[in-house]
Design goal:
This protein has about 400 residues and is an alpha+beta fold. It is built from eleven helices and 17 strands. Among the domains are: about 5-110, Helix Hairpins; about 265-395, Urease metallochaperone UreE, N-terminal domain (HSP40/DNAj peptide-binding domain, Sandwich), CATH 2.60.260.20. Helix content is about 25%, strand content about 25%. It has a four-stranded mixed β-sheet. The protein has a three-stranded mixed β-sheet with strand order 1-9-8. A two-stranded antiparallel sheet has the order 2-7.
């Protein structure tokens, strides 16, 4: 087993098998201890604070931690050589202590760095559930989707102000967007209840949007669905989410794909499962039958002596494998042998002759009462379900 990477654990002064709570507690203790606002002018403490933040950024994220444990810091940094810290350690500190736009520093040290409450704010992402057929998932398809979302008010251009007016500074927070509440050694900063963190108030509201700066807009877009897509896959449409605030970028629209049930086939990743009925003579003598697949009709060779419930596989007749051109899964077929309910006299006579020959080949296996041999058949247990049984036969 490869050696486990421990450098970041050492920075946080914890063992490499520490749980999530231990990681959080270690970061909380060390970040407060070495925060630059608590150690003004101390370059060594500032560097220590950056390393602590970098270690927590990786170990505090489950996916990043797994990558680091297995491959080291280069894997987490995208092969960029490791060691460097591209993020903002103060952002991590704020997020951890719930400071949002900078309140983390004020919460602990009564001042310091904070973001502009009137700066740009990115819009929220949206989700759209889209159902498509299995055939559409096989071929790929272009869909037109329509939905309503918020958009900037065309009258006030998103400001929320009546024509000829501007936002005014909030009297409660003096334009900071936050108000402080002293609690002993700490000053806890909270969003201003009057301006809701914007630092501004609108005295004269736009008649169109009521001061919100937003109105409902109808959107219609064409979306390309790639071949091979499956239930649960998402497609991202950049900029089609909620609009940003104060010049911030729009959020994104995520299309969540749902494949509708198909009465002919069941899909499992790139493989297709189906059932097909064949006549008894084909099962006994062998032959070629035509079966439907997602690719269209295909010929399936049935070997002589095929038994009821046998599974045959057509290679490469399943769903496309995404991002691998001209590669497809397989099509698995469970064969069911049909027993005719009505026979002509000639068919009955032929079967009696077959039964008689069968009796001669297998003495003691059947008795003829004048209407044909009587066979003893052992009853089987109830079928546990076609598709599950079929997948069990294939070995999945």
């Amino acid at each position: 087993m490869p050696a486990r990477h421990t450098e970041l654990y050492d920075i946080l002064e914890i063992p490499s098998d520490a749980d999530e709570d231990a990681i959080k507690k270690a970061y909380r203790r060390l970040a407060v201890k070495y925060h630059p606002d608590k150690n003004p002018g101390n370059k060594e403490a500032e560097e220590k604070f950056k390393k602590i933040s970098h270690a927590y950024e990786i170990l505090g994220n489950r996916e990043k931690r797994q990558m680091y444990d297995q491959y080291g810091e280069d894997a987490v940094n995208g092969g960029g050589g490791g060691g460097g810290f591209s993020g903002d350690p103060f952002d991590i500190f704020n997020q951890f202590f719930g400071g949002g736009g900078g309140g983390g520093f004020e919460s602990f040290f009564g001042g310091g760095r904070r973001r502009d409450p009137n700066g740009p704010l990115e819009g929220a992402d949206l989700r759209y559930n889209l159902g498509i057929t299995l055939d559409e998932a096989f071929k790929g398809v272009t869909k037109k989707i329509e939905f309503n979302r918020s958009g900037l008010c065309p009258t006030c251009n998103g400001s929320g102000c009546a024509d000829g007016t501007k936002p005014e500074r909030c009297d409660r927070c003096k334009g900071s967007g936050q108000v402080g509440v002293s609690q002993g050694f700490f000053t806890m900063m909270h969003e201003c209840p009057v301006c809701h963190g914007t630092g501004q108030k609108i005295a004269h509201k736009c008649a169109k949007c009521g001061g919100s700066g937003r109105v409902s807009v109808h959107r219609s877009i064409e979306l390309h669905i790639p071949a091979g897509i499956d239930t649960g896959n998402r497609i991202r449409v950049t900029g089609e989410g909620e609009p940003g605030v104060r010049g911030g970028a729009n959020g994104d629209l995520y299309i969540l794909i749902q494949i509708r049930p198909d009465r002919r086939f069941q899909r499992e990743d790139e493989d297709i499962y189906a059932e097909h009925h064949i006549p008894f003579p084909v099962a006994a003598l062998g032959g070629v039958v035509t079966i439907p697949t997602v690719h269209g009709d295909a010929e399936l060779t049935v070997p002589p002596g095929t038994q009821n419930g046998d599974v045959l596989t057509l290679k490469g007749k399943g769903m496309p494998v995404r991002q691998r051109p001209n590669v497809f899964g397989n099509h698995h077929v469970k064969l069911t042998i049909d027993v005719p309910r009505k026979l002509t006299d000639a068919q009955k006579e032929a079967l009696r002759a077959y039964a008689a020959a069968f009796t001669q080949d297998n003495p003691g296996g059947a008795k003829d009462n004048g209407t044909g041999p009587n066979f003893t058949v052992n009853s089987s247990e109830a079928d546990p379900g076609f598709f599950q049984k079929l997948k069990d036969k294939v070995g999945l």
